[in-house]
Design goal:
Strand content: under 5%
Number of domains: 1
Shape: globular
Structural class: mainly alpha
Keywords: Cell membrane, Membrane, Transmembrane, Transmembrane helix
Number of strands: 0
Transmembrane segments: 47-66, 78-97, 103-123, 130-152, 158-179, 191-210, 222-243, 255-274, 280-296
InterPro entries: AA-Vitamin_Transporters (IPR050638), EamA_dom (IPR000620), EmrE-like (IPR037185)
Pfam families: EamA (PF00892)
Radius of gyration: 20 Å
Number of helices: 14
Helix content: over 70%
Distance between the termini: 31 Å
Protein name: DMT family transporter
Order of helices and strands: HHHHHHHHHHHHHH
Largest sheet: none
Length: 304
C-alpha cells in the first residue's frame, strides 16, 4: 500500500470516528429529554459519572496509578475541571431540558465557542479581529433568536425561557472549563479522564442526595436506566476516546471543526427521536450561530 493510499484510509477512519463522536455528543441532549419524568437531573448526573468512573478505572486504572503523585500535585486544578466541565455543566444541561426543547439545547451548545471567545477576551485580553467580532455578534443574535422563540416581542421584554437561561449558564460553565485547560498539567489523557470523572462524581453526589430527599427526586425506572447507561458510556467515554484518536490522526485544527456538527446532529436527532418541531427560527439560529463560528475561526491568508 502506498503512503498516499494509507493516508487516505487514515483520514476516512478519522472522519468516521469524529462523526460518531459528534453524534454521541449530539445525542446527549436527546437522552436528557428522554430522561424527563424517568430520572431527575441531579440523580442522572451522579449515576452517569459513577458508572463512567467504574468503566474508566478498568480501562485506565494502571495509568492513573502510575501517575498518582502527579495527580496529587495538581488535585485542586483537576477537581475544578471535573466540577465545572463534567458535573455542573451536565447538571444544568439536564435541568434545562425540563423547561425547554432538545433542539434549543443543541443550538445553545453551538454558542459555547463564542462564550470561550468572550472569556478569553475578558480574562486574557486576547486580540480580536473584525471578522471575529462580526462572528461573535452573529452568534449572539442566533442564541437570542432561540431564547426568544423567534418572537421580537419576547426579546424586547427579555422574557426568556427558564430552560434557555439554564443553558446560558451551562455554556458559561463549559467555556470556563475550556479556557482553564490552558493550565492543564502534563498528564496522560487516561489519567486526566479518570481524575476529572471522579471529581464530577464527588461534586454531583450532594446535589443528587438533596434532589432525592426532595419531591423533585426521581429514582430511575427502566427508561431512566437506559438513559443513564447511554450518557455514561457514549458521550462520557466513547466519544472522548474517539475524539482524542481523531485528533491524533488528522490534527486538532481539522478535528475541531467536527464539533460544529454537534448542534446540527442534535437537532436532527431531536426531530427524529422526539418528534420535536423544527421552526423557521431554529433554522435562522443555526445559520447565525454556526456562520458566526465559521467567520470567527477563519484566519487571514497570511496566517494560514
Amino acid at each position: 500500500m502506498s503512503a498516499e493510499t494509507a493516508q487516505s484510509s487514515n483520514n476516512r477512519l478519522a472522519y468516521v470516528l469524529l462523526v460518531l463522536t459528534t453524534t454521541f455528543w449530539g445525542g446527549n441532549a436527546v437522552a436528557g429529554k428522554l430522561a424527563v419524568g424517568h430520572v431527575s437531573p441531579m440523580i442522572l448526573t451522579s449515576l452517569r459519572w459513577a458508572i463512567a468512573v467504574s468503566i474508566l478505572l478498568v480501562i485506565a486504572g494502571p495509568q492513573f496509578w502510575a501517575d498518582r503523585r502527579k495527580v496529587l500535585r495538581h488535585l485542586p486544578l483537576l477537581f475544578a475541571y471535573g466540577a465545572t466541565g463534567f458535573a455542573l455543566f451536565n447538571i444544568t444541561l439536564y435541568s434545562a431540558l425540563n423547561y425547554t426543547t432538545a433542539i434549543n439545547v443543541a443550538i445553545w451548545q453551538a454558542a459555547i465557542p463564542m462564550f470561550i471567545f468572550l472569556l478569553n477576551f475578558i480574562i486574557f485580553r486576547t486580540r480580536i479581529t473584525i471578522a471575529q467580532m462580526i462572528g461573535f455578534i452573529l452568534s449572539v443574535i442566533g442564541v437570542a433568536v432561540v431564547a426568544s422563540g423567534g418572537s421580537v416581542e419576547r426579546l424586547m421584554e427579555l422574557a426568556i425561557n427558564f430552560g434557555d437561561a439554564l443553558m446560558a449558564l451551562a455554556g458559561l460553565l463549559y467555556a470556563g472549563y475550556s479556557v482553564g485547560l490552558r493550565y492543564k498539567p502534563d498528564l496522560h489523557w487516561k489519567t486526566m479522564m479518570v481524575a476529572m470523572a471522579f471529581a464530577a462524581m464527588v461534586v454531583s453526589l450532594p446535589f443528587a442526595y438533596a434532589e432525592w430527599q426532595s419531591p423533585a427526586g426521581i429514582v430511575p425506572d427502566a427508561r431512566g436506566w437506559m438513559v443513564v447507561l447511554y450518557t455514561a458510556i457514549f458521550p462520557a467515554i466513547i466519544a472522548q476516546v474517539f475524539f482524542i484518536r481523531g485528533v491524533e490522526m488528522i490534527g486538532s485544527n481539522r478535528a475541531g471543526l467536527f464539533v460544529n456538527l454537534v448542534p446540527v446532529i442534535g437537532t436532527v436527532l431531536a426531530i427524529l427521536v422526539l418528534g420535536e418541531v423544527f421552526g423557521l427560527h431554529h433554522a435562522l439560529a443555526l445559520v447565525l450561530v454556526i456562520g458566526g463560528i465559521w467567520l470567527a475561526e477563519r484566519k487571514p491568508a497570511r496566517q494560514r
